[in-house]
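User: Structure please.
Assistant: Input sequence and predicted structure:
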Amino acid sequence: MKAVVIHGAGDLRVQEREVPTPGAGQVLVAMEFGGICGSDLAYYAHGTSGTAILRTPMILGHEVAGRIAQAGAGVSGLTEGTAVTMHPARYGPGPLAPHLGERTNLHHDVRYLGSAAPTPHQDGAFAQYVLAEAGQIRVLPPGVSTRHGAVAEPFGVALHAVHRAGSVQGLDVLVNGVGPIGALCVAAARARGAASVTAADIAPAALQIAAELGADHTVNVAAGEELPADVPVVIEASGAAATLGPVLAAVARGGVVVQVGNLPLTDRPAVLGNLVTREVEWRGSYRFVDEITDAVALLAGQVDVEPLLTHTFSIDEARLAFDTAADPGSGAGKVLLDLG
């Protein structure tokens, strides 16, 4: 089978790998679509993603959907041909710290598809066939294509970010930075009952996608347009440290900022004074707990992610797909690989 393998910064190859065989409690999924994520692009550009350093070749990808090809012993209810997506995380046996409650996304021992954090690395799912534990599988509802199902994982990230803000029902929400995750945060806030959603970015193409996903207002920061004032909830999805000052000035006194955009690990200047004087709550948001299940349900009619899916490439065109996703001038939203 073919697989998309990262060997180092700039060294992406489509290689042949053996088709795995499912063991007890496992399923083999024939992959159909995969979405290129920011972490995939980071491995491609730098050989690192956050604190994870690529040390050996690794199959990329964790935003995927396909169909059950074979079920191992002891697996029931997952028959051949069933359309599915998958939760990318598997957790070790150790318990969560008591103060974490059910926040499994913060488990100290986790293996995530396409992650170089553990050693040996955890291969991802940009391959024609992938093994998964039965518990990782989420069946797609009738009418939800595998093309849309590949967006369930990043949509789960967006839903988790909105959940970290608390209830947004009836509140105005600002999403700062509307790349794929930010655009999905717009859809998530809308689905969770926000009174209005404003999208801010420097790219007109991204703002257009955000509008199609439910943004009531758009702000083109590059054109000199200013962020709104006194917003109760801000989802910061740009990951640009320079935006933190304007964001903290935009949030209402006593409001909440959820940081879902990955901030740089190196020192960067940021104006944070309003964090204190406005008594703002600044909350991090990392992956998700089980919001991927909510995402799958919302894809069945309530949320249309098609406007986000701007480009599709075959698995043999993986390098071109990655270059397109990484190019700010391409106008790309979510770039998909056709893995079938």
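The longest strand covers residues 26-35.
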